[in-house]
Structures are given as structure tokens and as C-alpha cells.
Design a protein that fits this description.
The protein is of the alpha+beta class. Among the domains are: 86-136 and 431-535, 2-Layer Sandwich (TATA-Binding Protein); 265-398, no CATH class. Helix content is 30%, strand content 32%. The protein contains ten helices and 24 strands. Strands 4, 6, 10, 11, 12, 20 and 21 form a seven-stranded antiparallel β-sheet that branches. A six-stranded antiparallel β-sheet has the order 2-3-22-23-1-24. Helix 4 runs antiparallel to helix 6 and helix 6 packs antiparallel against helix 7 (410-429). It is elongated, with a radius of gyration of 39 Å.
């Protein structure tokens, strides 16, 4: 219980903070919003909680604890499931539920009849001299065992997925394609035993993406629907199929699931350098820095420009308005798209051998060009001073962010979860209960039949009704007389004595039990102490 609670608490940061494996752009936004706190959280692996070493340590401790709980219990419950009911207690009147009646049948015939009836009701039986013990509800223990084994299997399935599965991310602009190879993925997080050759060889093309938003009311600007029209092929040479990729409707191809997890804008630019050559003409993904208006920022790097390399840092505003001299986007759809750019010239540092982020511009060896960052509409250009060239905003395309997941432990985990639920229901709904019957000779040639009932687990109640029904059926089958049940008695204390029954019947029972004690081996004084305690002696 301690480790399960600890694992639940450790999972909270994974739900509260953005996770690198689920939404990298949200992690970038968190860095931008909390520049001092984000590096500290990253050192604690709080942006990748479920792959953190400390989370794995808690997980392994829970696995070991659960294994230590389940394995000994397995052997114990297997033995318990095969165990016969205990011997009938000598004094059934001390059990929580009791009944007694007289019949004209002999003791042996009455017990044989009771045995047949209880066997027909799926009770497990044990017989002795003058008594029958019956028990049912063994499935409760089986359910408890299934629940714990299923939990163990669930943890094992998660481990299988972590070892043999992988996760990846890919940002894809409308019109572009990619193949499921390590070099084509933006991020790749393989399991311990996954190599690049293990990746499924599918390919995918993004033909179109549409996003609709709420246009009025308090929910204005909230997303209503995202729809990505894609084409994919399971492997080279296989047929190309179309699919409408939506949120919570992933594409399943060759065991890999492709999820739509984000989207944004990729403004298109054409750059002409100082020599008059077009050295850049492409779409550049900008990353959203806020969700209300989907304001996005990005950089354009032009290493082939001459005579000097060029770099631009820009902000894309899908629906630009001027609010008190400040340019803002007030709606996430591109109703009035504008882009504002800061221009730099010099050395981009891309040949230094140090890797660079495509979303950041290293200005250490650059100088800013003296040109105003006026917002550009589609088709407008910004002329760079000093004959450095021209940049033109030609339009925009949209991009989507894909989460690619292969988890071979997913189906076993699902089956384990279903089994755990089934075991839990069994342990809650099935009651372990015992019924005991004793028959002995009474007065005037009659036979006294005593019944006792004990529910080992009956938190929800209901055994009283079942016991009363069994007593009634037995009495009717035996043509019983003077049926006395616990409800008819004057007191319901489990420690009641024989005097609580009618005097005549109590006397008959005492005489019959005295005769039975002389021949019943279960009443021997050298019985197992644990059995005597169970019988209530």
C-alpha cells in the first residue's frame, strides 16, 4: 500500500507539468514562461517523469513488494482452495445463525438428505459421525488471488513496453512526408532493447490540416475540431491508404499508433541575398508561445546568403490587432495573419561543429541590421540595408505535431487490467460461508436436527436470508416440526446458552448431544487447538 501510494504521488508531476514525450512545444513554452524554474525542474526529470530514474526506482520497489505479497499468498490460497470444510462445532448454538427442528426421520437419513441438498447447491461437503459440514464461496479467495496476480502482470506489461517499445515525435508541415526512421524523427526515445532496425517501415504524408474554433460566447477561441488528412503506406511498395487523423483517433499502422497532439503555423519566406540570388524559399515552423491567439515565434537561418549570412527572428500573429500600440493576436485562426521580423547579418555559427536548435538563433557572431520590424502581410517584403538583400513573406502553411508510439505491452496491460477488475468483483461479490448440520435422537423416537451458519465474509449482508431459506428447505424436506431459528429466539447474542431455547427442545438436545459426545471423534479433547477456537469452544 505504501509503495502504491508513493507511485501515485510520484505520478502527479507528470499530470501537472508538460511532458517532453507528449508535448515538446508545451515544454518549450514553459521554459519561456519560467526561465529560472524550468532548468531546476529539468534537472529533477520533472518534464520526463515516467522515464526518470527515481520513478523507475519506485516502480521496481512496488513490483518487488507486490511479488513478495502475491507469491506466498498464491501457495496459501491454492491450499485453501483445496481444503475441506472444518468439522462441525460441537455446540452449534454458539454460532451467529442457528436453527433447530424435530423430524420423524432417523439421524442417518436426515443427514443423508441434508448432504444431498447441500451438494446440489454447490456446497463443498465434509461428513462425520452425526454431522455434516458444508462450505462455499471459495471463488472469493480465487478472485483475491486473480486481482494480485493481475496487478503483478500489469506492472510486468508496463515493463515490457518500456523495454521493447519506443516513443517518437515528428513535426510535419502540410505537403511534407516522412518515413519512420531515426534520422527522420525529431525526437526518438527507444526502449532498452530497441535498435533503429526495429522501427516499422511505414511512411506518412500530410495532405491537409483544418482547425475550427468557437467563434462566440465565453468559449470563444477554444478549439472545436482538428482534422488532418494524411496518406500512409505500411511499408515500401505496399498500397497507399488515406486516413482522417483527429484528436483521440490515432492512426494504427503495423502495431504503431500515431497521435495528433498539436498544431501551429509555418510562415513561408523567400530570401534574396545581396548578389540577387534566391537563397531561401521555404516554410518555417513557428512554435506557439500562447494558446489564446496562437502567437508563435521562430527563426529563419540563411547560411547560403552572400556576401554575409543572414538570420531572422520573428513573431507570427494569426489574427493581428493593435492594442494600445502593442501588436497582439486575438484569435487562433488566421483571419489577419501578419509576421514581424528582426534581421541579423554575420556568422550563424553553423559550421562550428556545435549542434544548434532550429528554433533558436545564436546572435553571438551576428549584428542586428537597422531596419524596423514592421508587420508584413502576405506578399509584402522587407528590404535589408547595406545591400544585404530582401525577405518576402509569401504566405503560410500549417503544421501538426505527431506522437508516434509502439508499445508491445499495451494489450497484455489491458488484459491484466480486465482480469484485475474481474478478480476484484469476485472478491467483493462472493461470500465465504459455512453451514453445519447435526442430527441426534430426541425424545419419543424423534430426531433433533440442529443447523448452524457462519459467514466468514459478509460485509454487504445477505447470508441471514440464505441461511433461513436453507433451514426452511431442510425442515420441509424432513417434514420437520417446531422449527426454531435465530429470529425466533429471545436473544441474538453469539454467546447464548441452551436455556434460550424452549425447555422441552433444549432438554432433548442436551440428551442427544450427551449421547453423541461419547461417539463423535470431533469432540475429543485432544483436537487441534486452532480447530477448537474456530468451533467456538
Amino acid at each position: 500500500m505504501l509503495f502504491r501510494s508513493l507511485l501515485a504521488v510520484a505520478s502527479v508531476p507528470g499530470s501537472v507539468l508538460p511532458q517532453q514525450g507528449i508535448d515538446p512545444s508545451a515544454v518549450s513554452q514553459y521554459y519561456a514562461s519560467h526561465p529560472a524554474l524550468a532548468p531546476i525542474l529539468a534537472r529533477l526529470s520533472l518534464f520526463n517523469v515516467f522515464a526518470a530514474p527515481w520513478f523507475a526506482a519506485i516502480y521496481l520497489l512496488l513490483f518487488a513488494s507486490l511479488a513478495g505479497c502475491v507469491l506466498p499468498r498464491t501457495f496459501r490460497l491454492v491450499g485453501s482452495a483445496r481444503q475441506l470444510p472444518p468439522r462441525a462445532p460441537r455446540n452449534l448454538a454458539r454460532l451467529p445463525l442457528t436453527a433447530s427442528y424435530q423430524t420423524g426421520l432417523g439421524p442417518a437419513a436426515a443427514l443423508d438428505s441434508a448432504e444431498r441438498m447441500l451438494s446440489g447447491k454447490q456446497f463443498r461437503l465434509r461428513t462425520g459421525d452425526g454431522w455434516v459440514a458444508a462450505e462455499k464461496g471459495y471463488l472469493r479467495e480465487v478472485g483475491n488471488l486473480i486481482f494480485h496476480i493481475a496487478l503483478l502482470a500489469l506492472l510486468g506489461s508496463v515493463g515490457v513496453g518500456a523495454i521493447f517499445g519506443y516513443k517518437a515525435n515528428r513535426l510535419l508541415v502540410v505537403g511534407d512526408s516522412f518515413a519512420n526512421t531515426v534520422t527522420a524523427l525529431d525526437q526518438f526515445r527507444p526502449g532498452r532493447l530497441v535498435s533503429p532496425a526495429d522501427l516499422q517501415p511505414f511512411s506518412l504524408t500530410l495532405d491537409n490540416f483544418t482547425a475550427t474554433y468557437v467563434t462566440s460566447g465565453p468559449q470563444r477561441g477554444q478549439p472545436a475540431e482538428f482534422n488532418a488528412a494524411v496518406r500512409y503506406s505500411a511499408q515500401p511498395g505496399s498500397p497507399v491508404r488515406a486516413y482522417s487523423l483527429r484528436v483521440n483517433h490515432p492512426l494504427d499502422v503495423d502495431g504503431v499508433r500515431v497521435f495528433l497532439i498539436g498544431h501551429g503555423y509555418a510562415p513561408e519566406f523567400r530570401v534574396t541575398d545581396g548578389t540577387g540570388h534566391v537563397v531561401f524559399n521555404d516554410a518555417v515552423p513557428f512554435i506557439p508561445i500562447e494558446q489564446a491567439g496562437l502567437t508563435s515565434d521562430g527563426v529563419i537561418k540563411v547560411p547560403d546568403a552572400g556576401p554575409r549570412q543572414l538570420g531572422f527572428a520573428g513573431v507570427f500573429l494569426p489574427t493581428m490587432v493593435n492594442v494600445g500600440g502593442s501588436l497582439q493576436s486575438v484569435f487562433p485562426a488566421a483571419l489577419n495573419p501578419r509576421v514581424s521580423l528582426l534581421a541579423y547579418a554575420g556568422n550563424l555559427g553553423m559550421n562550428s561543429g556545435q549542434p544548434q536548435s532550429v528554433y533558436q538563433l545564436n546572435t553571438a557572431s551576428l549584428h542586428r541590421l537597422p531596419v524596423a520590424p514592421d508587420p508584413l502581410a502576405a506578399g509584402q517584403s522587407m528590404k535589408l540595408p547595406g545591400g544585404a538583400g530582401t525577405i518576402t513573406f509569401t504566405g503560410y502553411r500549417q503544421w501538426i505535431s505527431l506522437a508516434i508510439t509502439y508499445d508491445p505491452g499495451q494489450l497484455p496491460a489491458l488484459l491484466s487490467g480486465v482480469a484485475a477488475l474481474a478478480g476484484l468483483l469476485l472478491s467483493f461479490l462472493v461470500r465465504r460461508r459455512r453451514v453445519f448440520v447435526r442430527a441426534y435422537a430426541g425424545a419419543a423416537g424423534s430426531t433433533v436436527v440442529d443447523l448452524g451458519g457462519l459467514a466468514r465474509s459478509d460485509a454487504a449482508g445477505g447470508f441471514e436470508t440464505e441461511f433461513a431459506g436453507l433451514a426452511g428447505e431442510l425442515s420441509e424436506a424432513h417434514d420437520g416440526r417446531h422449527l426454531v431459528t435465530q429470529a425466533d429466539e429471545t436473544a441474538d447474542s453469539p454467546g447464548r446458552t441452551e436455556q434460550e431455547f424452549p425447555d422441552a427442545l433444549a432438554g432433548q438436545r442436551q440428551a442427544g448431544q450427551a449421547a453423541n459426545r461419547s461417539s463423535d471423534p470431533s469432540a475429543s479433547s485432544n483436537r487441534d487447538p486452532s480447530l477448537r477456537a474456530e468451533e467456538g469452544e
